[in-house]
Amino acid sequence: MFFAFVIIAGMLLIGVLVFARLAARGQFVMPSRSPVWIILSAILFVLAGCGSGSVTTPPPMTPISTSDTGATTPTSASGTTQSDWTMYHNDNARTGYIENFSDPKQLSRLWDKTLDGAVYAEPLVVGGHVLIATEQNTIYSFDAQTGQEQWHTNVGTPVPRAALPCGNIDPSGITGTPIYDPATKELFAVAEISGPSHILVGLDVSNGQVKLRRQIDVAGMDPSAHQERAALALNQGTVYIAFGGRYGDCGNYHGMVIGSKTNGQGQLLVYQVPTPREGGIWSPPGPAIDANGHLYVAVGNGEVTSGTWDHTDSVLRLSPTLQLEDGFAPTQWAQDNAADADLGSMSPVLLPNGQVFSVGKSGRGYLLHANALGGVGGQIQEQQVCPSYGGYATVGSQIFLPCRNGIRQVKIEGNSITMGWQHDQPNGSPVVGGHTVYCMDYAGGTLYALNSDDGSVRTSLSIGTTSRFATPTLWNGLVFVGTMQGVVALKVA
Fold it and tell me: Which of 93, 175, 359, 399 qualifies as a cystine partner to 350, CB 3.0-4.6 A?
């Protein structure tokens, strides 16, 4: 092969020289028997010979990364690759599932950091760095493997509990999980700052520089009564931010979703639940977004307890521009409102077969059609499951629920809701890696790793006190959990 290419190169050189000489004489037309034609014919003959026989062309090299995130794709403990963990539970559907992740025989502490405040938001991983937001309104970037700090940025003074009419977080800073945008390479977060007011910030993840700062309290909104606990969502250049009330339901608050362009330009998009008061959209996963950009949110109890449905105790579908498209409520929505037994405590579950599953404080589970949610009482199926609070995880049509009395597996089979296993110790918001469910016993400060097939304990490790809705992050054979003191990194072995 080498000698053939040497011959070709020589012939090409001769051809160029001959053609140049002919061109100098004004002879641009090549007759069929011209010297150049003879040379080119010989070259084609050699090329044909090089293309035959048993010689094979080697496959092209695999690029290091074809994504536009600016981050490398690391190799996981199982030898496969895994992308960054850029939002709550890893994707717009909030599945919290990674297929290629080693099942642990044990968990060991790799590193931990004491930070300036409690961590309620889920840790994120971008470009090999863990991004942590605290209630002191500080965002940190640490090397995921070593724990070495890359940078930290404080975006404003948080609001002390004493300055608010009610609540159970002191102080209130960044509570909802931020989101990373690969298009702008910015991390977006909502911070509650003194005033009080709520601001959307965008930070350059390479150095922590604040690139965007925008107030998002809209006209008629009382910032002291509204809390941003839900995870941020992102689609097609718009960041979506959901609001509910504070613990204690004080003040005149309304559930709402606000949308802002990532560049901070243009008017804010707003959807407000049409109820006189309450109807918060507060569950930690925030809005789930389908492949067409439609948002699905769960709405809490409202003040109305009779008469016409006010779109509380519900699952609502919103357009990308935050127009109400469809909704569902249980037949007994008014009684649920009166008893604080609504669907607002857990975001809707988007299933792969065009269905939606919803369950909340009452424990009654509802299976819905995504394209026709059903209005009042229009569910496909309903069944008593368990009172659920926080974030779920899904593997296909299997759902792992954070129930009041432990983690529960639920299977959706056609139009049926089937109960699977239950483990009564951990009851935090789960994620799934490989065939293992990772979840906190937040009261006891212990992280559990359960076999996803039967709920048996693979291993567990005490990591310290966490918030009620703390949820793990999985990346490259490591597990990250935010605590009331900071963050812990664990190694799967």
Answer: 93
